[in-house]
C-alpha cells in the first residue's frame, strides 16, 4: 500500500477532477449529472497495513513508493487512517520495542478498525509462534483493548475475536457487521455508509425479489434485503460467506438465501448450462427477480455475467473501477439506460474512486 499525498487544501480540486472524469466516462450513455459524496479530509481510512523497517535494534512502521521496495518511508503517524489507528500505533510500537518476544522476526502489522470503535491488529512473523509469544500477546491485547491475531507460516493464533464489529445506520436502522481478519471490507466507513444509503434509495420499496452478485460479507445485503420480498445472494469467498451468514443472523434478517458460487457459476446455473450441488434444494424458478445488484471486483463483470444482467428490468451497479463500469454499460446500452449515477470518494488524495449507477430497461 503506497501512501497518498496528504494535502487537505487540495481535496476540493481533486474531487472536482474525479467528478469531471466520471462525467466524461459516462457521457456516451447520456447519464445524468452524478451525485457526489465526499469523504472526511482526514482519519477516514479504517484499515492500514505497514511493513516494519529495522534500524539498529529498533523497528519502525514503513511504507514504500510504488516500484521501490528498498527506500522506506518511515512513519510515526498516519493522518489518513482512523483516529483509533493513530492512537494505537505508538502504543503498539512501544510494546514491541520493549519485548524481544514480540519483536523477534516481526515484519508486518495490519490494523482493522471500525466506526463503532472496535479494533483488531494482526502481527505477521517470519518464525513459529510459541507459548511465550502467546502469553505476551494476550497481555498486549488486554492493555490495548483490541483483538489480536498472530500469523506465521502455517500458524494463525487468535486472541479475542478474529473479526472486528461494525455498526452502520441506513434509513434510521442500525445494522451490525462482523468484519473478518484478512477479508475485504470497505476501507472508508463514512463513505461506505453513504453508499449504502444511496443504494437503499435507488432500489426503492419493492414487492419482488432481488438477485445480488458478489455480496461479500453482506455489506449491501443487509439493508437491501429490507426493501424486497426475497434475496438470492452469491459470493465465492468462504470467509466472506461465513461472515455474511453470521451478519444475517445477528440482524434477524431471514429472507436471504446465500450460495457460495461465483457470478460466472450462477450465470451457468440460471442458463441451465449445468447443475450445482450447492444449489440443491433451491428452486431458482420460484424467484420473481425484478432487479439485480452487482458490486464486482476491479475487472468488472465478465461478458456472460453482463449478458445475464440484461434480463433484468433494473440493474443497480456499484463499481470500484469506473473504466470497467463504462465498458459494462457499453455492452448493455442498447437495452438499458442510466437513470441515476453517483461518485463515492472512498480514496481521497488518489485517482481511485467508486461509482454507482442505476440502469433501467428502455
From TrEMBL:
Enzyme Commission number(s) of this protein: 2.1.1.35
Enzyme active site: 320 (nucleophile), 320, 354 (proton acceptor)
EC class (word): transferase
Alphabetic keyword roster: Methyltransferase, S-adenosyl-L-methionine, Transferase, tRNA processing
GO biological process, one term: tRNA methylation
Swiss-Prot/TrEMBL catalytic activity: uridine(54) in tRNA + S-adenosyl-L-methionine = 5-methyluridine(54) in tRNA + S-adenosyl-L-homocysteine + H(+); uridine(341) in tmRNA + S-adenosyl-L-methionine = 5-methyluridine(341) in tmRNA + S-adenosyl-L-homocysteine + H(+)
Coiled coil: none
Molecular function, one GO term: tRNA (uracil(54)-C5)-methyltransferase activity, S-adenosyl methionine-dependent
InterPro entries listed in its UniProt record: MeTrfase_TrmA_AS, MeTrfase_TrmA_CS, SAM-dependent_MTases_sf, TrmA_MeTrfase, U5_MeTrfase_fam
SUPFAM superfamilies: S-adenosyl-L-methionine-dependent methyltransferases
Matching Gene3D superfamilies: 2.40.50.1070, Vaccinia Virus protein VP39
Cellular component terms (Gene Ontology): cytosol
CDD domains tied to this protein: AdoMet_MTases
Amino acids binding S-adenosyl-L-methionine: 186, 214, 219, 235, 295
Family: Belongs to the class I-like SAM-binding methyltransferase superfamily. RNA M5U methyltransferase family. TrmA subfamily.
Function per UniProt: Dual-specificity methyltransferase that catalyzes the formation of 5-methyluridine at position 54 (m5U54) in all tRNAs, and that of position 341 (m5U341) in tmRNA (transfer-mRNA).
UniProt protein name: tRNA/tmRNA (uracil-C(5))-methyltransferase
Amino acid at each position: 500500500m503506497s501512501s497518498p499525498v496528504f494535502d487537505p487544501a487540495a481535496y476540493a480540486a481533486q474531487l472536482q477532477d474525479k467528478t469531471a472524469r466520471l462525467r466524461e466516462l459516462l457521457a456516451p450513455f447520456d447519464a445524468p449529472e452524478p451525485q457526489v459524496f465526499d469523504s472526511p479530509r482526514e482519519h477516514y481510512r479504517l484499515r492500514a497495513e505497514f511493513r516494519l523497517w529495522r534500524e539498529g535494534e529498533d523497528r519502525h512502521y514503513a511504507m514504500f513508493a510504488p516500484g521501490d521496495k528498498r527506500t522506506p518511508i518511515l512513519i510515526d503517524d498516519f493522518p489518513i487512517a482512523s483516529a483509533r489507528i493513530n492512537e494505537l500505533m505508538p502504543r503498539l510500537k512501544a510494546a514491541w520495542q520493549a519485548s524481544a518476544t514480540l519483536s523477534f522476526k516481526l515484519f508486518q502489522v495490519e490494523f482493522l478498525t471500525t466506526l463503532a470503535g472496535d479494533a483488531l491488529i494482526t502481527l505477521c512473523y517470519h518464525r513459529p509462534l510459541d507459548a511465550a509469544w502467546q502469553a505476551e500477546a494476550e497481555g498486549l491485547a488486554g492493555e490495548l483493548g483490541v483483538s489480536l491475531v498472530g500469523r506465521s507460516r502455517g500458524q494463525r493464533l487468535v486472541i479475542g475475536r478474529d473479526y472486528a464489529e461494525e455498526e452502520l445506520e441506513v434509513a434510521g436502522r442500525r445494522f451490525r457487521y462482523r468484519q473478518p481478519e484478512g477479508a475485504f471490507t470497505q476501507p472508508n466507513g463514512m463513505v461506505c455508509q453513504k453508499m449504502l444509503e444511496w443504494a437503499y434509495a435507488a432500489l426503492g420499496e419493492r414487492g419482488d425479489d432481488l438477485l445480488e452478485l458478489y455480496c461479500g460479507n453482506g455489506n449491501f445485503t443487509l439493508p437491501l434485503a429490507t426493501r424486497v420480498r426475497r434475496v438470492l445472494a452469491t459470493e465465492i469467498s468462504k470467509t466472506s460467506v461465513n461472515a455474511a451468514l453470521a451478519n444475517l443472523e445477528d440482524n434477524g434478517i431471514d429472507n436471504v438465501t446465500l450460495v457460495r458460487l461465483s457470478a460466472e457459476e450462477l450465470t451457468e446455473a440460471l442458463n441451465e448450462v449445468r447443475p450445482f450441488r450447492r444449489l440443491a434444494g433451491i428452486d431458482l424458478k420460484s424467484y420473481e427477480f425484478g432487479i439485480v445488484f452487482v458490486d464486482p471486483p476491479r475487472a468488472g463483470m465478465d461478458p456472460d455475467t453482463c449478458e445475464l444482467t440484461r434480463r433484468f428490468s433494473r440493474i443497480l451497479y456499484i463499481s470500484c473501477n469506473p473504466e470497467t463500469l463504462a465498458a459494462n454499460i457499453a455492452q448493455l446500452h442498447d437495452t438499458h439506460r442510466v437513470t441515476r449515477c453517483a461518485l463515492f470518494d472512498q480514496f481521497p488524495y488518489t485517482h481511485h474512486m467508486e461509482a454507482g449507477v442505476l440502469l433501467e430497461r428502455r
